UniProtKB/TrEMBL annotation:
Name of the protein: RNA polymerase-binding transcription factor DksA
Domain Zinc finger DksA/TraR C4-type: 90-123
Pfam families assigned: zf-dskA_traR
Family matches, as PROSITE patterns: ZF_DKSA_1, ZF_DKSA_2
Keyword Zinc: yes
Species per Swiss-Prot/TrEMBL record: Actinopolymorpha rutila
Molecular function GO terms recorded: zinc ion binding
SUPFAM superfamilies: Glucocorticoid receptor-like (DNA-binding domain) (SSF57716)
Entry keywords, A to Z: Coiled coil, Metal-binding, Zinc, Zinc-finger
């Protein structure tokens, strides 16, 4: 019984958390993509005068900022997908570094995490 992993009710609760987060993240991704497209469109309008336009650099900054958020959201979505994969495979909730079970309290806060607190602190 030692290797049974998480109790079914905890697993169901965490799966619901991950799925809700995945939905939110997918929405954010769509929103950011629209945002980035909007910035690129407005940048294209002033592109011919970019060097002299004081707005030019702030557009580039805004674009980089949105792009960074987009990358972050994409990465987070990937982590959530991987968490769902691990749930399906029955390996969810185990620290990938030391192999010990990750406390459910930690999983509730960070359902996509792959390491226990000790290993997370060590790798920092
Ligand atoms: Zn660990």
């Amino acid at each position: 019984m030692s290797d049974a992993g998480l109790p079914a009710n905890d697993l169901a609760e965490l799966r619901a958390l991950v799925e809700a987060d995945r939905e939110r993240t997918a929405e954010r991704l769509a929103f950011l993509t629209r945002d980035l497209t909007g910035i690129l469109d407005s940048a294209a309008l002033v592109a011919t005068d970019d060097e002299h336009d004081p707005e030019g650099s702030s557009t580039a900054f805004e674009r980089a900022h949105v792009q960074a958020l987009l990358d972050q959201a994409r990465e987070h979505l990937r982590q959530l997908e991987l968490a769902l994969d691990r749930m399906a495979a029955g390996t969810y909730g185990r620290c990938e570094s030391c192999g010990r079970p990750i406390p459910v309290e930690r999983l509730r806060i960070r359902p996509a995490t792959t390491t226990c607190v000790t290993c997370a602190a060590r790798s920092r």
